[in-house]
Amino acid sequence: MRLRAFFAGDGDCLLVTTGDGHHVLVDGGRTASFRENTRPALAELATAGEKVDLLVVSHVDADHISGVISLLKEVAAWEVHDYQVGEGANPTHPAPVTPRPPTVVGLWHNAWRAQLGDLEGPVAALASTAAEALSLAAAEVEEESGAGRMALDDLSGLAESISDGVTLLRLADDETPVLRNAAFDQGLVMLRSPVHVERVGSATLQVLGPAEVHLKKLREEWRAWLDRQPASVKDAGGRPGAAGGRPGGGTGGAAGQGTAASTLPMSPPQARDLVRDVARAADTAAQGHEPDPTATPALIEHLSPTGVTTPNSASIILLVEEAGRTLLLSGDAAEDEILDGLTAAGHLTDSQPFWCDVVKVQHHGSEHNLSTRFARSVLAGHYVFSADGAHANPNPSVVRTLVETRAQVDPRPFTVWFTCSEQRTIPQRRKAMRAALDEARRLEARHTGQVTVRVLPDDQPFLEIEV
């Protein structure tokens, strides 16, 4: 079994190849990195007559889904071309300008609508309202820094992710022959009892998450979040043209109650006030203080600067196994969700940690999402950080916790991999990337012979690990 971890900007893009030549692509990273690094590798598969047996979208965040959308658009374009020159009897139909992608047999993707049920419309509408405000108040956004700026970026990412999720569903269900969630009767890909096991060639995939308890918590948190929004914000979210808004009515409200839709566009002053309130709330929370509920629309409460964002809570978690070798693909799941899945599948007990040959470190090595508990519970021969310094990921504290704990509890050698160097990322992120790499190299020197640090060369599209 082989893992290729592509340079994917601040996202994930992973290709698992089984010993007998079957392929599973997990996430697609950003569009630009996908086109430059992943597309050529997939074109090689197509030229060799090989397929992507399964395409997995761990969750809808843009840094995971954007490249997948690019791929499915190419699949759709070639599907139209093949029909035209075949059944359409139109031999002059021009071929798409992009290389032919490999056939994608199946897709696993948990849509927002399936995750949130009746809350999907209101959440999408409010996210659209926030995106409009961020666009109108772009100058104010640029002036923000620290937790406030991170919160605004997260909110922008949420709106983008919801829009991308709609696009992905349209492409998968209406414009390509790709079967979505076929093994689950088009229901949610999630932890079940017994654990769902999918065979792909000589390997098996165990679905360890998300669990129903985490999806239920996600819905409860979103409902509470919606309930906290002032009527003015809900009304703005229900304007005609807002994502999820209903023509002539409201968004449906947090509890299914309609809200009056405004026919007026958001004004620049309203946008500036909303942006400032969101940033102020995030800064207050980062300082450990409770925000004043009368002074902020609370749009950012659920995107805490000290925790994972909501879409991450629904990450698909996979354990790939072949010939006794294992690969843990965690998406952006919280560590408790990963540990719960491993426990439910019988891989982890209170008295025995779980050994895994390769771990894709969850949430790009984000702060507060990997503790000593996780590092002691899940031991590996290889740890992969997929990040480029965005949002201070990988965080040096996470690198330190992982390496120091692993070195202490298990004497076997291990390797820590990074998909991005300091120079490869954009200038604004180089300081953060340098801090993570400097910490890794400091620890490598401290644990000479046990810890090896490997960084993807700037001229290479992916790192490769033989599992």
Give structural attributes.
8-stranded mixed beta sheet; 467 residues; 3 domains; alpha/beta; single chain; globular
Description:
- It is a single chain.
- With 467 residues, the protein is an alpha/beta fold.
- The chain folds into three domains: 1-108, no CATH class; 113-187 and 212-312, no CATH class; 315-456.
- It has helices at residues 31-47, 62-85, 112-116, 120-136, 138-143, 146-175, 212-227, 231-237, 268-286, 335-344, 372-377, 396-409, 430-446; strands at residues 2-6, 14-17, 23-26, 52-56, 104-108, 179-180, 197-200, 203-209, 317-322, 325-329, 354-360, 378-385, 414-418, 451-455, 462-466.
- The protein has an eight-stranded mixed β-sheet. Strands 6-5-4-3-2-1-15 form a seven-stranded mixed β-sheet, with helices on one face.
- A hairpin with a 2-residue loop joins strand 7 and strand 8 (203-209).
- Helix 4 (120-136) crosses helix 8 (231-237) and helix 6 crosses helix 9 (268-286).
- The protein is globular, with a radius of gyration of 22 Å.
- Residues 236-264 and 293-308 have low confidence and may be disordered.
Query: What topology, given as strand order, has the largest sheet?
Result: 7-8-9-10-11-12-13-14
Count of runs of 4 or more consecutive helical residues = 13
Which structural class do the helices and strands define? alpha/beta
SS elements, strand count: 15
- The percentage helix is 40-55%
Q: Which range does the strand content fall in?
A: 15-25%
What can be said about the biggest beta sheet? 8 strands, mixed
